[in-house]
Design brief:
alpha/beta, Rossmann fold, five-stranded parallel beta sheet, 8 helices, 5 strands, Adenylat/UMP-CMP_kin, transferase, nucleobase-containing compound kinase activity
Length: 187
């Protein structure tokens, strides 16, 4: 199964992606992990990405796409994968389509974890306090949620038009959300 998982900050996307990938026997591929691995290994793409990351800038699509293409070409991705944090733009959706099409494949499902904004804000404020993130104020968190919604709406529209978007309630315990995900995916 080839999956894309989306969800706003604080939705538990990473936690759910880890558990879901394990249950489905496919790798959980996080763009953040790919960036860190390439930087740590000192690959040419990692060196280029580090320049942007160190400057606090967005890593350009070309670099991100190349890293994802490389990761998806590895043997453990043959039976499928779960992408977390990619695609983030319409251009990346098109690039992912092209990567898969070259092997006669396509994304099987796009999962969006939905949340109650006020509850997620509370959750993120608590996490910020526990982790000493003074810059994660309520206003900053709410803005990050707005930006996510603005940027993700076009992607969810594409996947919905293809009939592969599944929306799953991301509120509740980890086990409750996992159960809803498995049911929604027919797994």
């Amino acid at each position: 199964m080839r999956l894309v998982i989306m969800g706003p900050p604080g939705a538990g996307k990473g936690t759910q992606a880890d558990g879901l990938a394990t249950r489905l026997g496919i790798p959980h591929i996080s763009t953040g992990d790919i960036f860190r691995a390439n930087v740590t290994q000192g690959t040419p793409l990692g060196i280029e990405a580090k320049r942007y990351m160190d400057a606090g800038e967005y890593v350009p699509d070309g670099v991100t796409n190349a890293m994802v293409r490389d990761r998806l070409s590895q043997d453990d991705c043959r039976p499928g994968f779960l992408l977390d944090g990619y695609p983030r733009t319409l251009e990346q959706v098109g690039e992912l389509d092209e990567m898969l099409k070259s092997d006669g494949l396509a994304v099987d499902r796009a999962v969006e974890l939905t949340v109650v904004v006020d509850e997620v804000v509370t959750r993120l404020l608590k996490r910020a306090q526990e982790q000493g993130r003074a810059d994660d104020t309520e206003d900053v968190i709410r803005r990050r949620l707005e930006v996510y919604a603005e940027q993700t709406a076009p992607l969810t529209a594409v996947y919905e038009s293809r009939g592969i978007l599944v929306r799953v309630d991301g509120m509740g315990t980890v086990d409750e959300v996992t159960a809803r995900l498995l049911i929604a995916l027919g797994a």
